[in-house]
């Protein structure tokens, strides 16, 4: 079950080359992404209406796609515009198309009711294009249901264990209870760890100051679009960071993470980890991408192993612990949205 | 669902060596093929009656097969003729055998009602042994249901696209509507493309004349046995080929293709592509086998990709186009035969 | 379906290193084995109570295991003893533990009603630690249901065929009808082959005498625990071995084999093949382990192939032959125990 009336990040814009085609499965449906000559992104079902050959085995012909099985041609809206050997085309030969918008370097697709596909609902990832931030677009893939990935993000106590030697580096993270708030889009978590003896391991070699550190992670998880938007940072302790006063050597980061279901058992993961200091230091930008990526592989190993255990657990119930307030709220909001969509569809 | 009362090509005769055994699954059932000392081909279920060990892990002993698990011996008719440690054999120890005939270099098996296994129903592939034709026996395997393979053969418009640079080489093929006729065995398609600027790409280097070409494909597809029997050729344009007058430099081919279901998801493909000119030119014979084989790999790539899309398409309906009259007729005939067999079995 | 109220061999003691953890699936359930600092073996479900992460991805901390997802700590009895960020622990956070005993170099686990886990029921494998016997612990794995493995052991006629050139070496084995007796634990089979021309092939190079041989296999198969306990040997013919009079050059062996279901489709196989002569000859001990292992690979090849055929055979019935009295009795006893356990559980 997926929320359908939402924009899902589905590709980086740079994956769509001028005459190329990108096949990718989103919410269990095989899609074809391509870019017209005017730059516009189009998304069709990756399935010829005729004999269900994948259009991604076809050929770009201008702004159209020809199925290379029997030669039908479709335009960017999925309209069948040529059927070899006849004038006009047979009825019912169009293929489904999906609203798509390219924004903030990402391609967003809407797989629900097209009438509701309001671009204003696209999550804000302006940092990807802002001159005030530097980051590198990255993609991961998890062999797990997206809800297990969201659970992971909704409880940062795992940083102390899964990421002991990478993103975490402190037992304080797990021992600190975050503030959990419901927002109009989902869940907001705020976590401060004051006076930590040092930085997280992933910043090694790039520290901007010495001495104790005030660290924070403040993030929104939108339960439509599964957009995780996090501000995090490290400031010299006792310089006022919790009150919003940032000393010049403070290191501030912003991470956008887009968790898009491929199908019930697989998840796409588009992410950036931007810094707003030392913008000219491309080595730092690159190092952050590599180190955060290594951290996400730690998540992936754990979550994929967890998925295998879940698969053999039938209806067994998980136990709730105190740290679960974030993920419990997130799961509850998602279930409510799924129920609302189902009711609307008369399902 | 498979038509059972039909002869299915299941092996090339040369695959059955003197003391060997060939295991192969046909219509979802694992079979064992072997050749007796008098040359006769025998086909048994590849399953010992006792504990279901595969007989193909057994040992030929003369014209019999010994199961190498507990030692039971079966003759070529599946009769259990030895049970170690007793005189005679226990009841119900025979294994099923299937009528089999070797003809035209192929081994044909009948998996329906044995009383109906009339060898006169075996498809005509005499070209395999005729001194007037030269060809090389070949086998392919598709990870797809056999009906998708038949569909492919029943609409040659795909030659223009799947085989653009191999077997096709002309948009005319897709733009030409073939004559489609129902025969007493299945479907007959006739397609002429007159005055084409050149030969199909797969004939490159072996052309026997220059100038424009009249090309044709005329074939029967038998919906019992799934035998595709095609005459095709290239004649100098305007020399009377469509009226049956073949100029001496005309290049005539005959292809037999036998589409045998392995199971619901896999298909065996036995084929030849014979020429009746330049018979002494074994390089040509070999080149045709290699080039047609490359063309069939193009089909395989498309059909296997199509099968994956079909698998995720549930009950979604394919669209019909004008070119579908051949495959629609073929599918209809097969469904009628399946229904007739089911009715007869009281299924 | 598995008999649950039984001790199952699940690991060799040497697999449990001081600070290590061993994940292994038994009867379809993923378990975690580890050894406390006092040497005691503990077995937990390999699944954190919280979010079902595998504990085997966790970390030993003294005699406890920390889940490395969110940091919960469990003691050797599965009790949750630490939940990061709170005093005490949340309710229902313990994980299941299973009675376990290390005896005769093997780790035995009980997955049924813990109240019935009487260590006196552990099968006798004292030869593994006796100064009178020499053997090497070995493990195999079969991709097959355990019942097919038991069938194999309950009919030694397969030695003549599966093991023609290894453990068997004589048609007499298949032609000799064993004595089959029901015992209080299962089935006992006794098989003598008198005056055989030579030894079994696996003893080549280690024969202790020349001339004809009286061979025997006498074994109990316990249908709880699936313990196969076999005495076998080769004595000079006509020296009284069948009456229990063993000439000094007689070669006597004892094999323990423990057949433990991993799940419905896979089986663990723990075994030894001990000799009680030439104890100082470690080359012999090693050779026996290697040669018997090669023989068991022959079984594995046959049984895994048989399983594939069984999988495609639906409800088809196997035929009974005279040699089946042992396996028929064994199967009947197992079915009765399964039915008794089901009745007790009100299933």
Overview of the molecule:
The structure is a homotrimer of 347-residue chains. By secondary structure, the first copy, chain A, is of the alpha+beta class. Chain A folds into 2 domains: 7-120, 3-layer Sandwich (Rieske Iron-sulfur Protein); 131-341, Naphthalene 1,2-dioxygenase Alpha Subunit, Chain A, domain 1 (Alpha-Beta Complex). The first copy, chain A, is 18% helix and 31% strand. Chain A has 4 helices and 18 strands. Chain A has helices at 146-153, 172-175, 282-311, 325-344, and strands spanning 7-12, 22-26, 29-35, 41-45, 59-61, 64-66, 73-74, 80-82, 97-98, 100-103, 106-110, 138-142, 179-182, 186-196, 213-222, 227-236, 251-263, 266-275. In chain A, the strands form 4 sheets. The first copy, chain A, has a 7-stranded antiparallel sheet with strand order 12-18-17-16-15-14-13, covered by helices on one side. A 4-stranded antiparallel sheet of chain A has the order 2-3-4-9, with no helix packed on it. The longest helix of chain A has 30 residues, at 282-311. The first copy, chain A, is globular and about 75 Å long. Chains in contact: A-B, A-C, B-C. Chains A and B meet through loops of A and helix 3 of B.
């Amino acid at each position: 079950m997926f929320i359908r009336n939402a924009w899902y990040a589905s590709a980086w814009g740079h994956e769509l080359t001028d005459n190329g085609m990108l096949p990718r499965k989103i919410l269990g449906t095989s899609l074809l992404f391509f870019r017209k000559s005017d730059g516009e992104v189009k998304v069709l079902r990756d399935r010829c209406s005729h004999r269900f050959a994948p259009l991604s085995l076809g050929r770009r012909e201008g702004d159209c796609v020809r199925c290379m099985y029997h030669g039908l041609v479709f335009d960017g809206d999925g309209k069948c515009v040529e059927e070899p050997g006849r004038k006009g085309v047979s009825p019912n030969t169009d293929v489904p198309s999906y609203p798509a918008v390219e924004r903030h370097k990402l391609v967003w697709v809407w797989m629900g009711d097209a009438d509701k596909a309001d671009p204003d609902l696209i999550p804000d990832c302006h940092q990807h294009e802002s001159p005030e931030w530097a980051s590198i677009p990255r993609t991961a893939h998890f062999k797990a249901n997206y809800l297990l990935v969201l659970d992971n993000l909704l409880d940062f106590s795992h940083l102390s264990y899964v990421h002991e030697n990478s993103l975490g580096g402190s037992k304080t993270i797990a021992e600190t209870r975050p503030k959990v708030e419901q927002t109009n889009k989902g869940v907001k978590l705020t976590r401060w760890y004051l006076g930590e003896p040092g930085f997280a391991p992933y910043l090694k070699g790039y520290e901007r100051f010495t001495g104790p550190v005030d660290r924070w992670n403040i993030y929104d998880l939108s339960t439509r679009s599964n957009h995780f938007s996090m501000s995090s940072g490290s400031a010299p302790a006792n310089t006022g960071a919790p009150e919003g006063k940032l000393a010049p050597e403070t290191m501030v980061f912003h991470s956008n993470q887009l968790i898009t279901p491929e199908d019930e058992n697989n998840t796409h993961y588009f992410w950036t980890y931007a810094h707003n200091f030392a913008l000219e230091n491309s080595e730092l930008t690159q190092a952050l991408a590599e180190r955060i990526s290594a951290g996400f592989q730690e998540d992936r190993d754990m979550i994929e192993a967890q998925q295998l255990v879940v698969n053999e657990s039938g209806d067994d119930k998980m136990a709730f612990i105190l740290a679960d307030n974030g993920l419990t709220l997130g799961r509850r909001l998602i279930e409510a949205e799924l129920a609302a969509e189902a009711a609307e569809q008369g399902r």
